[in-house]
Design brief:
Layout (H helix, E strand, L loop, with lengths): L3 E6 L2 E6 L9 H15 L6 E6 L22 H9 L5 E5 L2 E3 L1 H8 L2 E5 L3 E3 L13 H9 L1 H10 L3 E2 L11 E3 L5 H14 L20 H12 L4 H12 L4 H15 L3 H17 L11 E5 L3 H12 L3 E5 L3 H20 L5 H10 E4 L10 E4 L5 H14 L5 E4 L6 H5 L8 E6 L8 E6 L5 H13 L3 E6 L6 H17 L4 H11 L5 H8 L1 H9 L12 H8 L23 H13 L9 H21 L7 H10 L9 H8 L1 H15 L10 H4 L1
Parallel strand pairs: 2-3, 3-4, 4-6, 5-7, 6-9, 10-11, 10-13, 11-12, 13-14, 14-15, 16-17
Antiparallel strand pairs: 1-2, 7-8, 15-16
Helix pairs in contact: 1-2, 2-3, 3-4, 4-5, 5-7, 5-8, 7-8, 8-9, 10-24, 11-12, 12-13, 17-23, 18-23, 21-22
C-alpha cells in the first residue's frame, strides 16, 4: 500500500502523505513521493500540486532508525530536486511540526501555507548531524542568512509566526481553520488570478545584509556545550553561504554523510532512542489523578506545586505555619511573575495557574485529594509522623508519595495502614525545571499506583525512571559513588580546581566540587550520616565531613571547597590544609593527576556502581542509567551517558582499568563485575 495517495480536485493534484505516527521520511515514503510526483507532473490538466499530510503533523523529519546503516536509495536530495524543478507549482500545506527533512521538503516547494501554531526547525545538530538536503541553503534565502544559521545551529524549533521567519510562508491560517479546505481555496484563487508560477527558492541569491559571524560563533559555542557539530556546521556555512545553492548543498550533504556514523552522532541517537523507549508503553488503567497536594512549602515543595499547576492539576499546598505558607506562596507567585515577564506564559495562563494552587495549614483539607506528595525536611521521624497523619485523613485509594532523596520508603510506608499506596517521587531540583523523576517502588507498592505515577510523569513532561529502594535509590546512589571517587582523588593529590576543570572539559555543566558548594555540603553529609559508614573505605567522604565540622558548608556560608568572599571563587589555605592533614592522617600517598585520569576515574566509578545497581534489580535495564545521568546530573548528551560510554570503551579496557584500581584501593571498593553481561 502506497504511503502517498493521489487525488485530483478540479485542476489541483493532492498528494496526501499518510505514514503514521509522524510522517517520517523513510526510504519507502521517499520512493512513494517520487512515484506520485512523477505521475502528476506528466498530466497537463494539472495546474497545481498540493502536498498535504494526514495526522497531527506535516513531515516531522527523517526516519532516524535508518542512520545506523548505509544510506538507502532513493535519497532525500532526489525528492527535493524533483519538487523544486517541477514545472507545475507545488504548494506545501504545513501543520504540526515541520522539522529537519520535513522543512527541507517544504523549503523546496514553491509556496508554503500553514496554520499559525505550526513549528518549523532544523534539529539535526541535536542528533550529531547537519541538514543534508539543502535545508540551510534554502532557509537562508527564505528567512535571511543569520536567521537560517541560528535555526540550524541551535536545533530549536520556532513558530511560523516568529517575525524573523515571516518570509517562509505565503499565507497563514488560524489554528481553528481547516488547513486543507483553506489551502485549496487559496490555490484556486491564485490560479484564477494566474498568479501561481514555480518560484524556485534554490535559484535565488542570498541577501546582502552583513552577518556578524564572530558573534554567532560565540553564541553557538556557548549553547553547544560538548556537542562539536553546531560549530562544524557554522564554520562550513560561514565559508560557503554565498555559493550557489546546489554546490553548497552538496558540500553540506558530504558533511552529513561524514558525521552520521561518528561517535557523537551515535551517542546523540542513543540518547534520543533511550528517551523514546523509557516513555513508551500503554497504560492498562485510566488516569484518575485530579486533585493533588504538596506538603512542605519550602524550595522543593513550592517547585513541585508549580509543576503540578503547570500541568493543570489542582494543588493544595500545606505547611505547619501561616508564615511558612506565605513564604511558599510568595515564591510561587514570584516564579510565575518572572515567567510572565519573559513571555513564557501569557496573563491568562498566569492567572489560571495561580488559581489552581490553594494554601492550607489543616490536614483535613487533604481529605479528597487523589495524590499527596510530601516534600518536608529530610528526616525519617518527620516523614513518619506526616504519613501517619495522612493515613488518618486521606480517602481510600489516595496515593501517598514522598520526595525523599535517600530515606527508606519501606520504613515510611509502615507508618500507614495502606503501604500499597505509598511510593517515592524523587524530583530533582529545581523541580519545575529538571526533567528527571525517579518513581520509587517500595516493597508493597501496588502496580496500579506505579502506573498512575508513570502516567503522571508524562503529563508533567518528565523523563521518568522506575527504581527500587536502597540508599539513594539509583540516581543518588551512583552520584554518591562518583562523589566518593572525586574525594578520594583529592586525598591522593588532585587539586580542587583541577578536578572541576577536568569534569567541565569532559562536558559536565559544573565541576562536582562546585556542585557540592552550591547544594550545600552538609546536605549529603547529613544523609550519609544516617547510614553506617563503610569501614573498608578509610577516605570515604572524609573531606566533606571535615569541611562541615569547620563550618564550611558551601555558598550559603561563604566558604566550602571554595571561598566566596571575592567576586570569583578562590581556594584558600584552610581547605588545602584540611585535605593535606587528612591525607597524612590516612597515610595516602600523593600522586600526579592529569585531566584524562580524573575523567576516567570519575566515569569508571559511575559505571562500577551502575552495574551493581542493575545487578541488584534497583533498575531493570542499563538504559535507565543513561537517562538518569542525562536528565538528572547534566551528563554531556554528546557522550550518550555512562553506560553508552562504557560500551564504547569496551569490556576489556574497562576490566583492565578497574583491576588496576582494585589493586590500589581494594576489592570491596572495586569489586569484580560481570561487565560483559551488560555491555555486550
Amino acid at each position: 500500500m502506497s504511503l502517498v495517495n493521489v487525488c485530483v480536485i478540479d485542476q489541483i493534484a493532492v498528494l496526501e502523505i499518510n505514514s503514521p505516527p509522524v510522517n517520517a521520511l523513510s526510504a519507502a515514503l521517499r520512493q512513494d513521493m517520487i512515484d506520485a510526483f512523477s505521475q502528476v507532473q506528466s498530466d497537463e490538466q494539472i495546474k497545481a500540486i498540493a502536498l498535504h499530510c494526514l495526522g497531527s503533523t506535516f513531515i516531522c523529519g527523517a526516519d532516524i532508525r535508518e542512520f545506523d546503516g548505509e544510506p538507502i536509495a532513493p535519497h532525500l536530495p532526489q525528492v527535493i530536486h524533483l519538487i523544486e524543478q517541477s514545472k507545475t507549482p507545488v504548494i506545501a500545506l504545513l501543520h504540526g511540526h515541520v522539522l529537519g527533512g520535513g522543512l527541507e521538503v517544504a523549503a523546496a516547494c514553491h509556496y508554503r501555507l500553514a496554520l499559525e501554531n505550526t513549528n518549523i526547525g532544523l534539529p539535526e545538530v541535536g542528533l550529531g548531524v547537519v541538514p543534508g538536503a539543502g535545508g540551510c541553503q534554502r532557509m537562508m534565502r527564505l528567512a535571511g542568512v543569520e536567521n537560517a544559521v541560528k535555526l540550524a545551529t541551535s536545533g530549536r524549533p520556532v513558530k511560523v509566526t516568529h517575525p524573523d521567519y515571516s518570509g517562509v510562508c505565503d499565507a497563514l491560517f488560524a489554528p481553528s481553520d481547516d488547513l486543507f479546505e483553506n489551502g485549496l481555496s487559496w490555490i484556486n484563487s491564485q490560479l484564477e488570478k494566474q498568479a501561481l508560477t514555480p518560484k524556485t527558492t534554490g535559484l535565488n541569491s542570498v541577501d546582502e545584509v552583513p552577518v556578524d559571524w564572530a558573534s554567532l560563533k560565540k553564541t553557538v559555542a556557548r549553547a553547544a556545550k560538548s556537542n562539536p557539530v553546531p560549530g562544524q556546521l557554522l564554520e562550513q556555512l560561514a565559508n560557503e553561504y554565498q555559493l550557489p545553492t546546489l554546490e553548497a548543498e552538496q558540500n553540506t550533504r558530504e558533511l552529513f554523510l561524514e558525521l552520521r556514523q561518528s561517535v557523537v552522532a551515535k551517542a546523540l541517537r542513543h540518547a534520543f532512542f533511550v528517551e523514546k523507549k523509557m516513555q513508551a508503553g500503554r497504560s492498562k488503567n485510566a488516569f484518575r489523578i485530579e486533585q493533588t497536594a504538596v506538603i512542605g512549602a519550602g524550595t522543593m515543595g513550592s517547585a513541585i506545586a508549580l509543576c503540578l499547576a503547570d500541568a493543570g492539576f489542582e494543588v493544595v499546598l500545606l505547611e505547619q505555619s501561616q508564615e511558612a505558607l506565605d513564604r511558599g506562596m510568595g515564591r510561587i507567585k514570584d516564579e510565575y511573575a518572572k515567567s510572565l515577564a519573559k513571555g513564557r506564559i501569557n496573563q491568562q495562563q498566569h492567572d489560571a495557574r495561580i488559581a489552581l494552587i490553594s494554601a492550607s495549614c489543616d490536614y483535613q483539607s487533604l481529605a479528597q485529594t487523589d495524590l499527596v506528595i510530601e516534600a518536608a525536611f529530610e528526616s525519617l521521624e518527620v516523614k513518619q509522623s506526616i504519613f501517619s497523619k495522612l493515613d488518618e485523613v486521606c480517602k481510600a485509594g489516595a496515593i501517598l508519595a514522598t520526595n525523599t532523596s535517600y530515606l527508606d520508603i519501606d520504613v515510611i510506608a509502615q507508618s500507614t495502614t495502606r503501604p500499597e499506596s505509598v511510593l517515592g517521587l524523587h524530583f530533582f531540583s529545581p523541580a519545575n525545571i529538571m526533567k528527571l523523576l525517579e518513581i520509587v517502588k517500595a516493597d508493597k507498592t501496588s502496580d496500579e499506583a506505579l502506573e498512575q505515577m508513570q502516567q503522571l510523569a508524562k503529563k508533567l513532561r518528565k523523563q521518568a525512571v522506575t527504581v527500587g529502594v536502597c540508599f539513594g535509590f539509583a540516581a543518588n546512589r551512583i552520584y554518591t559513588r562518583y562523589g566518593r571517587e572525586v574525594q578520594q582523588m583529592l586525598l591522593e593529590g588532585a587539586g580542587i580546581e583541577q578536578i572541576d576543570t577536568a569534569m567541565r572539559e569532559f562536558g559536565m555543566a559544573m565541576g562536582p566540587l562546585s556542585v557540592q558548594d552550591l547544594s550545600g555540603i552538609d546536605i549529603g553529609h547529613n544523609a550519609r550520616s544516617q547510614y553506617p559508614q563503610p569501614e573498608y573505605d578509610k577516605g570515604y567522604f572524609k573531606v566533606s565531613a571535615a569541611l562541615v565540622e569547620a563550618g564550611r558548608l558551601g555558598r550559603k556560608t561563604g566558604s566550602g571547597f571554595y571561598n566566596y568572599s571575592a567576586q570569583q571563587p578562590t581556594i584558600d589555605q584552610q581547605v588545602v590544609d584540611i585535605i593535606a592533614n587528612l591525607s597524612k592522617e590516612l597515610n595516602i600517598e600523593s600522586k600526579l593527576f592529569d585531566a584524562q585520569t580524573i575523567q576516567q576515574r570519575a566515569i569508571l566509578a559511575m559505571i562500577c556502581e551502575a552495574v551493581k545497581v542493575i545487578d541488584e534489580g534497583i533498575v531493570s535495564e542499563k538504559d535507565a542509567i543513561d537517562l538518569i545521568w542525562l536528565h538528572g546530573y547534566g551528563f554531556p548528551r554528546a557522550k550518550g551517558g555512562p553506560m553508552f560510554l562504557a560500551q564504547q570503551w569496551g569490556v576489556e579496557q574497562l576490566q583492565a582499568q578497574m583491576s588496576e584500581l582494585r589493586d590500589s584501593q581494594g576489592e570491596k571498593i572495586w569489586p569484580p563485575l560481570d561487565l560483559a553481561k551488560y555491555l555486550a
